[in-house]
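Rotation project, supervised by the postdoc (A.L.). Task for the rotation student: set up a whole-complex structure prediction and record inputs and outputs verbatim in this book. Inputs entered:
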Amino acid sequence: MNNDTIQAIEAQNITNAKKLSIIAFSGEFDRLTAAFTIATGAAAVGYEVNIFFTFWGLNAIKKENGRAAIGNNFITKIFGLMMGGLSNTPTSRFNFCGIGPWIFRKLMSKNNVATLEQLVEAAKTLGINLYACEMAMHVLGLKKNDFINEVKDELGVASFLKISEGGRTIFI
Amino acid sequence: MNNDTIQAIEAQNITNAKKLSIIAFSGEFDRLTAAFTIATGAAAVGYEVNIFFTFWGLNAIKKENGRAAIGNNFITKIFGLMMGGLSNTPTSRFNFCGIGPWIFRKLMSKNNVATLEQLVEAAKTLGINLYACEMAMHVLGLKKNDFINEVKDELGVASFLKISEGGRTIFI
Amino acid sequence: MNNDTIQAIEAQNITNAKKLSIIAFSGEFDRLTAAFTIATGAAAVGYEVNIFFTFWGLNAIKKENGRAAIGNNFITKIFGLMMGGLSNTPTSRFNFCGIGPWIFRKLMSKNNVATLEQLVEAAKTLGINLYACEMAMHVLGLKKNDFINEVKDELGVASFLKISEGGRTIFI
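Outputs recorded:
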């Protein structure tokens, strides 16, 4: 096998890698559910999965007491309160002051479909890599220990692009 | 041609495949229009196109009588009514109780741009593969015959990832 | 080096290209900020970056006087007014009649994070390729000189797919 062919095969390895990376920007219940459903579905069939949480998506990885105002000044405190945590996420449509997610949860457990909380647990178990966006944390006054322990690292865009190289990247 | 080279060329075939897959999650008129515009534009220049409809996106492939409440219990009936069908989709911004989509349709037909309904027809004609998300159907109490006949199959995440392998995947 | 291997290596070049293409559909302040943050972050580490602005995303590249009603008839004039320009973009959540973006801008400048306007400037400096969607311009009655000079061209879907081939494509 000559060098060129090795290189070519490396290309194959790299480009066909079963790798899926998700930029989780949205904080709504239905979009987060979609993100975690795709992520756990992919991990279950052997994909390497990376999720990069940014902006509203950071809600998904906040500690349960994340509802409490966090951050070091008034404006970030307000945003912290408004963003809430995983159990306070609205739906992107038909939220009805919070009843929308409740209906969804009902429908999901009634029909034996994993709920968002169960999906997040599954993501941890399946070894999905969870990353927090450095810049958004900075803007919103969040620190690494505001997040669940499974969050691997804080990343910038460049590092995320490097980690997700050679696979598919979707923005949710 | 030796085996390694064959493999390498297969890599090329796989990774350069003119293949585009769309996860159609959103149910808004403007986002669905974007999804179908990209899909038909790609199919027209020889791309294999797969659309995987999930959550609100399922609106796009419901039969015209899809507006009627479907599903087998009260909560799914309510959701069925709220989701409506293709001709009841709101815009993501400036919906104005349904006038937004009407203005868009006006502008589109005035300027000789295909409307959403025409785009869906074009998608069928161009042989775009339409799939429904198994899990979302389950949650929302939808059955395969609630959808237009062109819907090829119900898929889970794993099957969709397999079908869309080697191409680009976008989430709308 | 034989022909097959050359072809295989070309495959490598194409498929591993550090190329990122963004379909910027959304017009909200937070989503546009995400789009430009990813774009400039990628360009800064040597990626070729293409942004294809469509629908509400066209707001990002309108000239400052873009707030004025543009277009050639009543309905497009109304849409032009509603869409506004870069400095009038709402946030996708917690907009509070325009206070949301103001809070974000405050937080961003307080924490030394580039604001949306600065990110757009950076995109120009980094040589990011900005394209406007031909069809959306047609629907909304926009002309090429309604946009900032850095907009390279008006493109249809097919041309955009060609330009973005071999890299990653995300829809925001």
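Student's summary: The longest helix of chain C spans residues 29-44.
Supervisor addendum: The longest strand of chain C covers residues 19-24.
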